[in-house]
Amino acid sequence: MYTYTDFDAAFVAERNRQFRAQVERRVDGSLTEDEFKPLRLMNGLYLQLHAYMLRVAVPYGTLSSRQMDQLAYLAEKWDKGYGHFTTRQNIQYNWPKLADVPDMLDALAEVQMHAIQTSGNTIRNVTADHFAGAAADEVADPRPVAELVRQWSTDHPEFQFMPRKFKVAVTGAENDRAVIRAHDIGLRILERDGVIGYEVLVGGGLGRTPMIGKVLHDFLPEEDLLPYLESIVSVWNEIGRRDNKYKARIKITVHEVGLEEIRRLVEERFELVKPSFAGVDQDHFARIKAQFEAPDFVQKSVGPFNEKYNDDPIFRAWADTNLTAHRAEGYSIVSISLKAHGATPGDATAEQMRVMADLARKYGHDELRVSHEQNIILPHVHRSDLPAVHAALKQHGLATANINLISDIIACPGMDYCALATARSIPIAQEIATRFDDLKLEHDIGELKIKISGCINACGHHHVGHIGILGLDRAGVENYQITLGGDHTQTAAIGERAGPGFSADAIVPAIERLVDAYLDHREDRSETFLQTYRRLGMAPFKAALYPEAKSVAAE
Amino acid sequence: MPKPFTPKVVTANHLLLGDVIYQTRDGWTRQLAEAEVLTDEAHADLRLIEAAQQTGEVVGAYLADVDTSNGTPAPAHFREDFRAKGPSNYAHGKQTELN
Ligand code: HEM
Ligand code: SF4
């Protein structure tokens, strides 16, 4: 794992010292809120409905046990004993007090973590495939790239006051688990004839105008990465719309100016920028890569796994659902579900964080990951240790076997916490999960991604959910709009609106009708909801959602 | 005839704690029921300006509609209802802290 250099540590310490002084000046009245707000946002501190909210970056989703323990410590000492893991591989604390935040930041710095650039019109936390370094289908580990981009973008003098926020995601595999097509820049590591390069996507994003990223460069040489990124951001920084914040993201610039013209401008800028890099970034990149060496995988018998798998149906269901193929022999990737039926998606208590940290320490080469699907990953577990891991998870409400199933829902904080929300998201997620658990249907339904946002900003990724749910305020009442056919992977697609929205009481029955329609229409169990939707289109699902409309039309 | 003025309260977040507060005649309270109800538009605007000037104590003051049909001010919109109570997924915030 990457460890801070003296430079990194000094930089974070200095930022924390500055922020402590800024908080003091705010509290004693020397700074007004208008002056203070941009400063606190630079350090990840929001003011939400009921309290301040601190957003802490988990760069490319990677945590050590010690860092996870420290997150638990923050949750206990300065929050209400839990934290919320988000779709951008951050953790949010919902209840800090202003005067405590500098201490929280210092506590984070002790374990080489921070909240810098988790907000504001800057380049945000760089996210990556949560199976990075472990996945069997990987060309190269995306995390060194993400770390390089993080170092380049952190406090980059040209990019602190951009037209709008800017988000970068990286994957090293063909199977996109990092939603790179819904990011301002998405990077995919490729190999051609033994040479590594990058596919560079630009102009993806969700929010009120969802767009799928477009290929700006199909094979960028490795050494051109930073100058090329700098050229993209610099072109957009100059021509991006500052007059209207809804049109400020690069996706709108690409849409308005056209991909060809953007490519021309970027290439022109690249000629200017490239000489200033002179290869130092590549020396540095080599040093970063060396810090992401794979752990020493052990060779031992997987016998204990097989025995348990054959004897214990609960373990078997969990193993079948929550494990993913690992590149090392005898190993598995474990997804720990933070979606126990009825729980708040993405929340973990301090105790659960410590349990996960302990498991990583004992059985997981000291590594954990935060997934954009709001779950925690133990990337490297030997299969013989899985029975022990499962038993410990079970004791702490962490063994739900539902990864990729209907109750593995992404939900943003919504109106329960968020000042921008137009409706709640969490209770809808809780009710759907509980309902389908009662029906004992979810394993039969198979892969189905429901994603819920509490407003048009789409933090809950609803546009790319197989079933997307968007909460709105219709004349003072919560109302939920359904989109169908979204896809967050390498075959990314924006969901299509199904029709008029549903009240909070009617939304769960509506989802049930949709799922029934799928079960009726699928060719067999191997055809997923999304595949059935792609084969049949909207009509049968619409008919299920709006039975009245059908009977009226039939009259 | 001009549109009737919906009664309002001045509400904000507390600078240090970040929690929801409501303006009273002579200060601030954490209970909506104790807030000063404003029934005159010009007076409401004035009270908001006064609140917004207290930047050392309050953040983001604004006027929120209230329903006074039961005698005490109650939230007129579900957003204000959550602000007055706390989140619905945990018994956190005002719903437990005010008791
Ligand atoms: C609770 C405080 C939050 C606030 C105030 C907030 C604000 C926003 C806003 C204003 C946008 C729209 C940006 C645009 O279209 O230009 C947005 C988008 C987004 N936010 Fe949040 N958000 C919050 C929480 C979250 C959480 C909890 C997550 C992760 C679960 C998240 C992840 C995202 C993502 C993935 C997008 C859409 C991707 C994009 O930027 O196009 N946000 N957020
Ligand atoms: S989608 Fe809207 S409600 Fe949900 S967290 Fe984002 S801004 Fe808040």
Automatic annotation (TrEMBL), chain A:
The keyword Iron applies. Residues 52-111, 345-395 form the Nitrite/Sulfite reductase ferredoxin-like domain. Pfam families: NIR_SIR, NIR_SIR_ferr. Gene3D superfamilies: 3.90.480.20, Sulfite Reductase Hemoprotein, domain 1, Sulfite Reductase Hemoprotein,Domain 2. It comes from the Bacteria. Keywords: 4Fe-4S, Heme, Iron, Iron-sulfur, Metal-binding, Oxidoreductase. InterPro entries: NIR_SIR_4Fe-4S (IPR051329), NiRdtase/SiRdtase_haem-b_fer (IPR005117), Nit/Sulf_reduc_fer-like_dom_sf (IPR036136), NO2/SO3_Rdtase_4Fe4S_dom (IPR006067), NO2/SO3_Rdtase_4Fe4S_sf (IPR045854). Residues 119-271, 407-545 form the Nitrite/sulphite reductase 4Fe-4S domain. SUPFAM superfamilies: Nitrite and sulphite reductase 4Fe-4S domain-like, Nitrite/Sulfite reductase N-terminal domain-like. This is Nitrite/sulfite reductase. It comes from Pseudosulfitobacter koreensis.
Automatic annotation (TrEMBL), chain B:
It holds the Pfam family DUF2849. Residues 70-99 are annotated as: Disordered. This is DUF2849 domain-containing protein. It comes from Pseudosulfitobacter koreensis. The lineage of its organism: Bacteria, Pseudomonadati, Pseudomonadota, Alphaproteobacteria, Rhodobacterales.
